[in-house]
Structures are given as structure tokens and as C-alpha cells.
Amino acid sequence: MNAPEYVLGSVKEALSYKANTFMIYTGAPQNSFRAPLEKLKVTEGDELWQRNGYDLKDIVIHCPYIINLANTLKPETYEMGKEVLKKEILRTRHIGARYMVLHPGSSLTGDIEESMKQVTDGLNEVLKDEDDIIICLETMAGKGSEVGRTFEQIRFMIDRVEKKNLIGVCLDTCHVNDAGYDLTDFDAVLADFNRVIGLDYLKVMHINDSKNPIGAHKDRHANIGEGTIGLETLRKIVHHPLLDNIPQILETPYVGGQAPYREEIEKLLNL
Ligand code: FE
Ligand code: FE
Ligand code: ZN
């Protein structure tokens, strides 16, 4: 979120890209320092966003990267992760958004199944008093010991979440490519997603090209049309009828110090 205008600034930025949704970090993604709630300029942002016909409840909040609920080696990391996540939920509610994207985390040298169980224990704890937000587990590229690298792992975690209506999935095209899914047959990928997880759980899309080939387990985003997935495949994905009402978010690299989103949205939408 771009200080000092926070939510208002993000709304202005999104409008300048002709976007009809957007995703924000409520502070630097790498740490948990956060401006006080009253400074976020939610009311002003909400007003401008509504004037353009949109609703802040449909935007996406990305949780900070430092949350690693999958770390079974350091209990303090797990405890800190839950605390940061609880605070992030408060901020999400304050903004009036519903969708939160969370990286399931990395198991490090620990056992993957144990890690995934700890992730869902943590989620069950932080969701205990919630009824309105949806935490979307992001599909990961599988670099290092990331969990959530297959649809089966995501399913394993969802199965253990008590409040199923508060859990969802964010499908990142770069990540699933790097995890080994062939997006040139996107219908097959969606069919697989539906069989293993269920399409109802798909709440957010991250649209990125990838700098690496299928199965590379790298996670390096490329600009639209400049990676191994390619413009044609990404176009088919964003226009897919089953993704009609799902927020689609670009996380592509800046070009010459500038956000490329306006041009990339145009590229993807003009058939
Ligand atoms: Fe992410
Ligand atoms: Fe992503
Ligand atoms: Zn990524």
C-alpha cells in the first residue's frame, strides 16, 4: 500500500491502471510494522472506489511473508505467525475487504504432513471468532521446502480447517507452472483442481508469466507475454468462463521503475 495515502492511494493507483480490482499489502510485505488503522484512509478510498462502481469488499489483502505457520522447528515462529495473522485480519476487517491471501509456508527440514497440520491448527485458532473473511491459501511454486505445491497438499490442509466457508485458494499461474502444471491445457488444470480441491474454493487468481520452465520450482515472475507461459495461454486463462467473478491480480515485475499493469491489463483484455 503506498504511504502516505494508503487505501486511498491504492484506489487511485488501481484506477490509473483501469483495473476493476486490486491487491494490497497493508505494509511492507517483508515485515510486520503497520501504520495505525486510523491512518489508512479507508473512508476516502472507499468513497472513490464506490464512485467508480466497485466495492472494497471485493479487493484482496496479501498477508506479510514473515508468517510461516508451517515451521514446526521453531515454536516461536509459529506463535508469532498467528499473532501477525490475527492483526492482519483486524486490518482486513477495518478496510472492509474479505479475501486474504496467505502463503502456507515452508516446512524447512521438518516433516511436510506435520507442517500442514500445524498450518491448519493455526488457521483454526485464528478463525475461531471470525465469520466474514476468507483466507485463501496460495498455490506455491515449491521452491525450497514450500508447502502447498500441489493441489493435493492444498486439499490436505482445507480438509482440516473447521470453518470451511472461511477458507479458499489463490491460484498463481507462475507458481503452478513452476510447480509442474501445464497451463497450455488450462481446462485440464481446472478439471484437476476441481477433482482434487473443488472449484468452489477458488477465490483469487494471480496472473503472472514465469521466467522458468514448467516444473522448475523457482518462483520468478515474468512480465505478461515475456515468460514461458506466454500471452496466448494467459489470455485464455483470464477470459475463462469459469473464472468470471474471480478477482485476477497481476504481480509482474516493474519495468524501468514503473508498474506495467495498465499496459498488461490492456494486453490481456484486447483479443
Ligand atoms: Fe503470494
Ligand atoms: Fe502470487
Ligand atoms: Zn510468486
In short:
With 271 residues, the protein is α/β, with parallel strands linked by helices.
Overview of this protein structure:
The chain is of the alpha/beta class and 271 residues long. The chain contains nine helices and nine strands. The protein has a seven-stranded parallel β-sheet with strand order 1-2-3-4-5-6-9. A two-stranded antiparallel sheet has the order 7-8. Strand 4, helix 5 and strand 5 (167-172) form a beta-alpha-beta unit. The chain binds fe (iii) ion (2 copies) and zinc ion. The site of zinc ion (ZN) has 5 residues, from helix 6. One fe (iii) ion (FE) binds next to loops.
Overview features:
two-stranded antiparallel sheet, 9 strands, 271 residues, binds zinc ion, alpha/beta, 9 helices, seven-stranded parallel sheet, binds fe (iii) ion, 38% helix
